[in-house]
Write a structure and sequence with these properties.
The protein is mainly alpha-helical. The chain is 64% helix and 4% strand. It has one domain: Rhomboid-like (Rhomboid-like fold, Up-down Bundle), CATH 1.20.1540.10. A 3-stranded antiparallel beta sheet has the order 1-2-3. A hairpin with a 6-residue loop joins β1 and β2.
């Protein structure tokens, strides 16, 4: 079987995450702990924390979304779009985006908590957000919605709502979810796609994005599954 990069990432993440559920040493060695970075130079924690998750639900949701938008049904996900747009560079650019997003999404978190000995963060949500928003850049009118709710709106509108709500929740605080990582991961996905399209292909991603939105029938903004 020809494994996609997305599936390889999912398999590795699942193996390590499941192992960490019952092994506190693995969890503690890989979790994002800002003081360990600022005081002990453990910079790898920016990346390793994306390999562990808080529980089964956290792991399932992240890996489900990564598969849906990374590989996708009928090979329509970001990985395969990258291979079409960037040819032989597509696979490595996709992998670079995912790995870089793991670290970039946590830079604001690190800056705010580098001396906070009570702070921990884990999960691949920031990198998964980068993949989702990269997909939106190529398919802004693809219907998106929440699990189990048969109501869909265009991806670009879903993305705007997602960022607004995440920003509000981040400012509000009071939860164990790192909304900041979601926001910065999403924004990184957008910037990365624009950058690589500019320098590694002739694909007019911004023009295509705008044109798809302009050509949409307003009566089809909301659809029901």
């Amino acid at each position: 079987m020809d494994l996609s990069i997305t599936l390889i990432i999912i398999i590795i993440t699942c193996i390590i995450s499941i192992s960490a559920f019952s092994n506190h040493k693995i969890m503690n060695d890989l979790i994002f702990y800002p003081p360990a970075i600022s005081q002990q130079n453990q910079w790898y924690l920016f990346f390793s924390c994306g390999l562990i998750h808080a529980d089964w639900a956290h792991l399932f949701f992240n890996m489900y979304v990564l598969y849906a938008f990374g590989s996708g049904q009928h090979k329509q996900g970001v990985e395969f779009i990258f291979k079409e747009v960037f040819a032989e560079k597509g696979a490595i650019l996709y992998l670079v985006m995912y790995i870089a997003a793991l670290a970039v999404c946590l830079i604001p978190t690190y800056s705010k908590n580098k001396n906070n000995q009570q702070y921990r963060s884990l999960g691949a949500s920031g990198a998964v957000s980068a993949v989702v928003f990269a997909y939106m850049m190529f398919n802004p009118m693809q219907g998106m919605g929440l699990l189990f709710l048969p109501i869909y709106i265009p991806g670009f509108l879903f993305g705007i709502i997602y960022l607004v709500i995440s920003s509000w929740l981040s400012r509000k605080g009071g939860s164990n979810i790192n909304h900041s990582a979601h926001i910065w991961g999403a924004l990184f996905g957008i910037v990365f796609v624009i950058f690589v399209c500019q320098f590694f292909s002739s694909f007019p991603v911004l023009q295509n994005f705008i044109q798809q939105i302009k050509n949409t029938d307003p009566s089809k903004i909301i659809t029901f599954g």
